[in-house]
Input
Amino acid sequence: MIKPRNVNTEFELGGINHVALVCADMQRTVDFYSGVLGMPLIKSLDLPNGMGQHFFFDAGGGSCVAFFWFTEAPDRVPGVSSPDALPGLGEIVSAVSTMNHLAFHVPEEQFDAYRQKLKDKGVRVGPVLNHDESPAQVARHLHPGVYVRSFYFTDPDGITLEFACWTKEFTESDTVTVPRTAADRRIPIA
Output
C-alpha cells in the first residue's frame, strides 16, 4: 500500500487524530458511519448545558472522524458551506475555512470492489477519477502518470466523502507549483 512517509523536522505528528464535523441528525449519522461505512463508534457524549452531542468513529490507522450535533446549528448552504456537487459531476467550490471534503485511504486492490459495495448499499457515488498531470488533471483510464485514484459520495448531511488510493511515490518534482496568495483570488460578486 503506497502512502507518503516523509519526516517532519519540527513536530512528531502521527497523522490525524480526528476531524470534527457537524451533523443535523446524530442517529442518522451513526446509522451511516457505523452501519453503511462500518466505522465503529468509540465515544459518545452529551455536551454541557444542553448544547448538543459529540460522537467519535474509528476511521482506521489511529484516525477518527468526530461529529458535533448542536441544538442551534444553522443549516448547510450548498455552494458555500460545502460543495454544490461531487467532483466529476459539477461545481466543487466551497467557502474559505470550510471543509471541502474528507478522503479515506483505501487499499488500491480493493478500490473497485469498495465502490461497488457502496453502490450496493444504495449510496450514490460519482465517477472514478484517475488524477494525473494532464490539462484536465483526470484521465478516463489508469496509466503510469496517475498519482491517485478516487471516487466521491456524500453522507446524509451532504458532506462530501472520498475513497482514495495513492498509486505512485512522490518526488521533489511533485512540489514545483508556486503557491498563490489572497491577492490572486477572484471573489464572486453577489
Q: What stands out?
A: Helices lie at 26-36, 111-120. The mean pLDDT is 91.
